[in-house]
Design goal:
seven-stranded antiparallel β-sheet
Length: 502
Amino acid sequence: MKAKLTVHREFSIGETDKRIYGSFIEHLGRAVYTGIYEPGHPSADSEGFRNDAADLVKELDVPIVRYPGGNFVSGYNWEDGIGPVENRPMRLDLAWGTKESNRVGINEFAKWAKKVNTDVMMAVNLGTRGAESARNIVEYCNFKGGSYWSDLRRSHGVSDPYNYKLWCLGNEMDGPWQICHRTADEYGRVAAEAAKVMKWTDPSIELVACGSSNARMPSFGTWESTMLDHVYDLVDYVSLHIYFANREEDTPNFLGRSLEMDRFIKTVAGICDLVQAKKNSKKTVNLSFDEWNVWYHSNDADRQIEKWTEAPALLEDIYNMEDALVAGCMLITLLKNADRVKVACLAQLVNVIAPIMTVKGGKAWRQTIFYPFMDASRYGRGTVLRCPVTVEKYDSKEYSDVPYLETVAVHNAEKKEISIFAVNRNLNEAINLEAEIAGFGDLRLAEHRLLCHKDLKAVNSAQEEKVKPVVQQGGSIEGSDGSKLLQASLPPASWNVIRLQY
C-alpha cells in the first residue's frame, strides 16, 4: 500500500502547549499508595516516594499532573490531607467504595511533583462543597502569607506558596455516578460563584469548567452551551473526557475510534464559539482534554474487589499492542487540534489505567502505551503542521472513511527538527510512505523509531517487555534544497516516529 504526504513549513495548525502531555493522579486504587508512594519500598526516598516510579515519570517528561480527582474529588475534604499525618482521619471514599487514609495530601503531593519535575493541576470539590472551600484552598496554596489559610500552610512547614495556575471546577458534574451531580444550570451557577472567588483570591489562575463527561451523554451539547452561558467570562477551558474499548474484539473498528475523538473536539470547540458569538465576546475559551485513554480490560476484575479496603488494585488495565496503536492515534488527534486543545491528561499515570505499573515491594515497569506517549512528549513540541495525505480508506462497524494512515508532523525550530508521527492501521500490509517536504532547506534522516509486534494482543509485564521500540532501517531522503522526498516503510499495525533534522 502506498501513501503520499506533504509537509510544508508554512502549513501551520498552531503551537503545541506543553501541557497537552499532562497526566493524572487520583486517590483511586493504587495510583498513590504502593504506586508513587510506598514507605519501606527498597527504592523509597526519605519521604516515602518510590524512586523507581519517579524515574519512569521523568522519562515521560510530564509537564503537569491533575490531582486529586476525578470522581474522588466530589466528596473530598482537602483539609483532611494537611497538618500532622498522625492526626489525619481515615475516610470512606464513596466514589470508589474504598478507604482513604489521607497520608498523602496537598503538601506531600507537591513534594512528589517537584521531585518528578512537574506542575500540578488542582481540582476543587463542587460536589459536596462549593465556593467557600474552593477559595480557601486557593488561599492555602497560592497566597504568600498574612491570612488564615496561608499562615496555616506556613505553620505546616511550607513558607513559599505553590502558585498553582490551573484549577478544575469539579469533575464530570453531569454524571449520575458523581457525588452530588447537577443539572447544567445548577452546575453553571455553582461554578460561576466558585470561579469568582477563586480568581478574586488569585487573579493569575486559569480555570477549567466541566464539559459533558463524554460525547455519548444524552445531554451532550446542551450541557456545554447551558453551563457556558453562566461561566463563559470566568473560565479559560472546557473539559473533555473519553475512553475507548474493544469489547467486541473488532480491531479495525477499535483503531478507527480516534475519529470519534476528533469529532468530539471539533463539536465542543464549535459550541464554545457559538456562546462567544452570543455574548459578543472577544475571549476564546479553549479545551482541556483532561481524561483520555483505553479502559476496559479491568472491568470484570474490578467487580470482584471487596468494598471498603484501602488501596485495592482497581482499574489496573494491562495494555497490549493494539491499545498502544489507539493511544498513538489519540495523541496524533490531540496534536491535529493543537489550535484549541491546550491541556490534555493521559488518565492515569501509575497503576490505574496507566502507562506505568508497580509491584508492591517490587519493581516498576512500562506498559505498551508508555512508548507512544513518551515519543510524543519528547518529540512533539513545537509547531504542528497540517499534512495533506493521500491514502486508501476503509469502513468499519461504527466508522466510515477511516484512513489507513493516521499522521501529523511537528516542527521544533529551536532544535531544527521535524518529527512525523504515523500509525499504520492496516493489519496486513506495510505502507510505503512518500513524503514531500518543503521549506526547511537541507535535511537528514536522524531516526525512524518503530513500535510493533506480530501479536496485537502482546503485553508487557514486570518479568518481560515484549513490546518496546526499535530503530527501523531502510528509509531515505533525497532531493534539492528546496524540496526533499522522504521514503519510508511503515510495517503493518505500527506506531512510527520519523525524525528529520536540518
